[in-house]
Amino acid sequence: MSNSYYGDEQRPIQPEPDPALVGYPPPAAEAWYSPIPGYGPAPVYGTALVDPDAQAHPGAMWPPAAPAAELPRPYHQVLRGPGFRWWKPLLSLVILLPMLLILILLAQLPILLYAVATGVPDPIRYVEVATTTVENIGPAGFAYINLALIVLIPASMLSTWIVYRVRPRFVTSVVGGIRWRWLSRCLLVILPIWLVYVGISLVAQPSDAARPGQWLPLLVMALLLTPLQAAGEEYFFRGWIMQNVGAWFARPMLGLVVTLTLSSVLFAAAHLSPDPWVIGVLASTGLMAGIATWRTGGLEAAIVIHAVNNVLTLGSVILFGGWEEAFVNTETTRTPMVLLVTLVVEGGALALLLWQAKRAGVQSLYQPVARPR
Known about the structure:
The protein has about 375 residues and is mainly alpha-helical. The chain has 2 domains: about 25-65, no CATH class; about 90-360, no CATH class. The protein contains 13 helices and 2 strands. The chain has helices at about 50-55, 90-105, 110-115, 125-130, 140-150, 150-165, 180-205, 215-225, 225-245, 250-270, 275-295, 300-320, 335-360, and strands at about 75, 365. It has a two-stranded antiparallel sheet with strand order 1-2. α5 runs parallel beside α9.
């Protein structure tokens, strides 16, 4: 039986649209995606997300907001959409390099101001020595190392924003920003593991060196600046490289293999050590961080692993000796046992993080935003 509301097929009869409201709000599109099995939230069917800028300005062009993907995409292919062109990663690199050079030079400014404020006779020479000394680095040099790597964050985000017209926060994750609850959960998983790891290392291989003379400012900077330094490396090696290089490949798995390999190799090479075991340790660390980024759809897990490792390692050598050998350089060496222990510890940590990501329903794919019509 039909009625005035449902009609013959028991469906609501839609009223005629008001001519004054035609085009607003923009018609919704059906959202669907197929996440990696076991990861991300359950598929959502129904109305797709609509960008608030587009909803507020229905007649305007598609704003430079969310990535212009038509289908759900993994982290390393967020930038690959209808507007992608083969030259865009190259243009992003051309913009990134001079921007990075300028920011690294600006990172010397706090050191120069400190030298002037404390009455150093030759401030320029002081800055030159402090920022180039690789042995027994003092507080000024340590501050510069941190700042020179922290600037990788704005450089990676801004170069992506300029070229792709995508909000910089999508370099962080597929949801557009840091997922603080997930980052906190990663910290709760990783911190106890690394406390045990570093503690055993201190007992097994105690240092005969004395605590550095200026240990207190070094420790403060390790706690405040080193987490951002670790994040800077992740934003470039796992963020910028994976997203820009991954956008070149139409086949997601091929793009994943290439980006994981490239980011891991470049991460190891950037530390300048020719020792094969050092290269192996660094490359495996980069690979673990890349896998975590791919499977969780963001940099949070990689940042936590990197930051906790650096803070606890530097903190231990500041407090208990060994500061002179804290940084990897051309003379640093490792042993096969160090590589094996690294693989076991970081592999176990990665497995725990992925298990937690599954339990927490962490979103691993970028969900396209419905464009106004």
